[in-house]
Every structure is written in C-alpha cells, then in structure tokens.
C-alpha cells in the first residue's frame, strides 16, 4: 500500500514539470510582451529604452533555458513574481483569495453529494420508477442549463423577488447558498448518472446473487456491498472535478461577485497580468494532480485490488 502511494507521488513530479514547461512555452510564444504589458498596466508610455530596461529587469534577455530554470526555482519557493496591476507578490494576492474559492467549492460538493448519492442510488435500484424518471430529468436539466443563466435565475427569484438570500458578496452562510447550488447542479447531473449506471451494473454481478442465496438481508446487500462498489466511479469523477471547481468557478464567481481566485483570474486576463495568469495555470495543474492522488488513495481503501494491480505493474 505504501509502495503504491509512493509510486503515485513520484509520477506527479514529471507531470507537473511538463505543465511548467508548457506554461513557460505558451507565455513566450504568445504575442504579449510581458515588459510591454507591465508598462501598459502601470500607465507608462512604452519606449524602446524603457522596454529594454524592463526586459532586462525581468530576465527576458537571457537564454530560454536559463529563464526556465530560474522560473522552476522561483515556483518551488511559491514565488510567482509581482502583479503588474497591484505591484504586490502574486502568491500573496492569490492566497488571500483561495479561501473564498475553497469555501464555494466545499459548499457545492456537499450539496452535490447530498443530492446525487441518494437520488442516483434509488434510481438504480428502482429502475423505471418515478424517482428514476425524476433523476433523468434532473440530470438532463443540470447538463443543459448554462451556469451564468442559472445563477441569474436564482438571484431573480430568491434574492430579488423573495428576498431570502443576498444578491452578491461573501460573509454569512446565506451568501454561500445560491452560488453553491449554481456550481453544484452540473455535478449533481454527472454524479447521479454515474451512480445510477454503476448500481445497475453491480446488480448484475455474481456477488449479489451469491449474497441473496446465502440469505443476507437485502438492505445489507444494497448498503454494504452494492453502494460501496457502485460509488467508486463517482469518487473518481469527484477527483477530476475538485481541481476544476477550484480553478474553474470563474463564471459563478463573476455572477455573484464572489471574491475568489477565478474572478481574480478574469481581471488578470483583461489586464494581461502575465505573472497572475502563469500562477493560475500552474495552480490548476497542481490541484488536478493532488486531487486525483487523494482520490486514488481513497479508491485504494475502498477497493484493495487497485493496490495489488499497482504492485503488479
């Protein structure tokens, strides 16, 4: 088990280094000159003399390999440079906004799990029933409605008309409800479908027939065996979506004026704030890798066969 985890951790390192290389390459291949972008953000008229000075200050006149190695050293120290707009360290700006995004991510995941697990499980064991049809309808709805439209719809009904929740901002638990629901609905659609299909598949497995033959109570079979095995694809999907939620809640944060990392990235993109954009991309890659590692470890405890397959390879 420990060997499997160690192998998974080791595989993360070259993947992350590849992500840094791709990010470095895209920044240098893009038509945006970081020195010019900095001067524009600082409202300074770019001249050839000032541009040359800033390129030297940023190290852009050095060989690409030297620039890349310096970039790796700085990234390992969480040094992503200074924001062109605020003139503050990028990591300081990002770390002050990450808690808000984490709060939104956790809220949406909790809502998605509380709805999709019972709904998908009941839809699977009661195929073609009323609850199964409702789960299909909800899945279709969640996969079809754009997040920005749903967000404005929830604001209109629950904030403007009913005055139950705040329109925007952050502060109390009420501020969290509407953006969390907006972010959770596509997850509910995905997880409900995954769990329903997995339950139907596991109900056809021989271990269910053997358990029934031995006279084990149906509730024990469904709860202890079928649900435990069927939930595995959903956990995998959750691992793939945690990083997406942490870095991809851009639209929801913009609609609800949520002071998170995604909204900060939008502002940085419009301002051509290269250090912030680089930090966002690398943080996204790191979150995807870490969340998938955590999910693999959880999957290993649920199904020990994963660990044995890892040792065989």
TrEMBL record:
One Pfam entry name: BPD_transp_1_N
InterPro entries linked to this entry: BPD_transp_1_N, MetI-like, MetI-like_sf, Nickel_NikB, Opp2B
Domain of life of the source: Bacteria
Annotated membrane topology: Multi-pass membrane protein
Main location: membrane
Transmembrane segments annotated in the record for this chain: 9-29, 102-125, 137-160, 172-191, 238-260, 280-302
Presence of keyword Transmembrane: yes
Keywords, alphabetical: Cell membrane, Ion transport, Membrane, Nickel, Nickel transport, Transmembrane, Transmembrane helix, Transport
Record localization: Cell membrane
Domain ABC transmembrane type-1: 98-299
Family: Belongs to the binding-protein-dependent transport system permease family. OppBC subfamily.
Subunit structure: The complex is composed of two ATP-binding proteins (NikD and NikE), two transmembrane proteins (NikB and NikC) and a solute-binding protein (NikA).
Name of the molecule in the record: Nickel import system permease protein NikB
């Amino acid at each position: 088990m420990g060997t499997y985890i160690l192998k998974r951790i080791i595989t993360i390192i070259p993947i992350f280094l590849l992500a840094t290389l791709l990010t470095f390459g895209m920044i240098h291949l893009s038509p945006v000159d970081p020195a010019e972008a900095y001067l524009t953000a600082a409202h300074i008229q770019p001249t050839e003399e000032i541009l040359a000075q800033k390129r030297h200050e940023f190290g852009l006149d050095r060989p690409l390999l030297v620039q890349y190695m310096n970039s790796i050293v700085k990234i390992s120290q969480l040094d992503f440079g200074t924001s062109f707009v605020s003139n503050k360290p990028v990591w300081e700006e990002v770390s002050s906004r990450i808690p808000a995004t984490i709060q939104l991510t956790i809220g949406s995941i909790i809502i998605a799990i509380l709805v999709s697990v019972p709904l998908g499980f009941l839809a699977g064991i009661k195929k073609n029933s009323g609850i199964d049809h409702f789960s299909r309808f909800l899945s279709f709805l969640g996969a079809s409605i754009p997040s920005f439209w749903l967000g404005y719809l929830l604001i209109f009904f629950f904030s403007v008309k009913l005055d139950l929740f705040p329109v925007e901002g952050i502060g109390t638990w009420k501020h969290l409800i509407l953006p969390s629901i907006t972010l959770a609905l596509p997850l509910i659609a995905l997880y409900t479908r995954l769990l329903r299909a997995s339950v139907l598949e596991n109900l056809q497995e021989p271990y269910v027939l053997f358990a029934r033959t031995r006279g084990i109570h149906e509730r024990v079979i469904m709860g202890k065996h079928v649900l435990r095995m069927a939930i595995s694809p959903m956990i995998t999907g959750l691992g793939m979506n945690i990083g997406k939620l942490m870095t991809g809640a851009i639209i929801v944060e913009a609609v609800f004026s949520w002071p998170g990392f995604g909204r900060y990235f939008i502002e940085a993109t419009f301002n051509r704030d290269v250090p912030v954009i680089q930090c966002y991309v690398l943080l996204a890659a790191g979150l995807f890798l870490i969340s998938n590692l955590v999910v693999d470890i959880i999957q290993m405890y649920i199904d020990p066969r994963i660990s044995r397959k890892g040792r065989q390879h």
